[in-house]
Design a protein that fits this description.
- It is a single chain.
- The protein has 147 residues and is mainly alpha-helical.
- The chain has one domain.
- Helix content is 84%, strand content 0%.
Length: 147
């Protein structure tokens, strides 16, 4: 039962993370850009990622499959590397959202420049592609070894 609860929490958080990332992309396409909402959603995105990591570690250490399953599983390591890459790809948007929020506090009419919005939207797209990779590696991982 413990493993089941960890798995459900892990999956629900991943779906929540995807929703927040899609919301960021949608808000970046809107005019005007809601800088405060972007910053709040990005905070939720970061908190979700942290909880996913913590619960994932719990699944590895205390779940039904045990560390030996994960240690020798190449798709587990590919998933971990992809998670790290998605985390790194989340830094430019997070830093931009914080910068934009500070600028909005100084100037109530502040709107980020269009090229900067486009660049940050590109980074959110990279993150979404990475999350798709995570899901693929998770499916491959759970069926390893094949046969």
């Amino acid at each position: 039962m413990h493993d089941l609860i960890l798995a459900m929490a892990h999956h629900l958080l991943i779906f929540g993370l995807i929703v927040m990332l899609v919301m960021e992309r949608m808000l970046l396409a809107a005019t005007p850009v809601d800088v405060r909402r972007l910053a709040r959603i990005d905070g939720g995105y970061g908190a979700s990622a942290l909880l996913i990591l913590v619960i994932g570690v719990g699944r590895v250490l205390y779940g039904g499959k045990g560390w030996a399953f994960y240690e020798s599983n190449p798709f587990f390591w590919a998933k971990m590397a992809t998670f790290a890459l998605v985390g790194m790809a989340s830094l430019p948007p997070t830093l931009a959202f914080l910068k934009w929020r500070r600028a909005r506090r100084i100037d109530a009419d502040f709107q980020p420049p269009a090229p900067e919005i486009d660049r940050i939207r590109w980074w959110t797209g990279i993150q979404l592609l990475g999350v798709i990779g995570l899901l693929i590696f998770a499916a491959l991982m759970s069926h390893w070894p094949f046969g």
